[in-house]
Amino acid sequence: MREVGETTLPDLPRVAVASMNATHAEELAIIERLLAALAEDDAAAAQAAAEDFARHVEEHFSREERLMERHGFPPYPIHKGEHDRVRAVVAQACAGLDTAEGRERLKAFIERDFLPWLVNHVSTLDTATAHFLAMQGVE
After folding, report:
1. Is there a domain that residue 98 lies in?
2. CA distances in angstroms from 69 to 19, 49, 62, 119, 124, listed in the order given
3. Domain count within the chain
4. Could you list the pLDDT tens digit for every one of the 139 residues in the chain?
5. Is residue 1 one of the residues assigned to a domain?
6. For residues 60 and 119, is the Cβ–Cβ distance under 8 A?
7. Domain extent at residue 73
8. Could you please report the per-residue DSSP string of 9-60?
9. C-beta separation of 17 from 125 below 8 A
10. The CATH number of the domain where 94 resides is what?
């Protein structure tokens, strides 16, 4: 676990596909940078980091969805549905960072909602998906 200001970043479970683990590690590094900018109340740095975060979430989810589709993962619609729900929530949380209140809302979202969700998502849906994909030869 790593500390960023008052926030402890979780150690994510490892899954059976190395590329998914790498994506999860990249996402935590971006979140770490975002939380540091929010802790410093640096609006410009927070905006840039929030854009990187939202872009990475989209790339992360899209990459997994392509793999699930390509390999015929049976519960694909369930996993994609969760991704779609979180995409919308992330976009909303990353809006309005030009105010201190907006930056505080994003910080609270990351700490209270996104990080616990990410741990749960990796522990459940991503673990099952990675196991299936690894059996298909995905690394």
Report:
1. yes
2. 16, 30, 10, 23, 18
3. 1
4. 576 667 788 999 999 999 999 999 999 999 999 999 999 989 999 999 999 999 999 999 999 999 999 999 999 999 999 999 999 999 999 998 999 999 999 999 999 999 999 999 999 999 999 999 999 999 9
5. no
6. no
7. 17-135
8. EPPPPP-S-HHHHHHHHHHHHHHHHHHHHHHTT-HHHHHHHHHHHHHHHHHH
9. no
10. 1.20.120.50
Residue 45 in domain: yes
In single-letter form, the type of residue at position 93 comes to A
Q: How many helices (H) and strands (E) would you count in the chain? A: 6, 2
- Amino acid residing at 85: R
Rg, Å, the chain Cα set: 15
Contact 50, 38 (CB under 8 A): no
Residue 11 lies in a domain: no
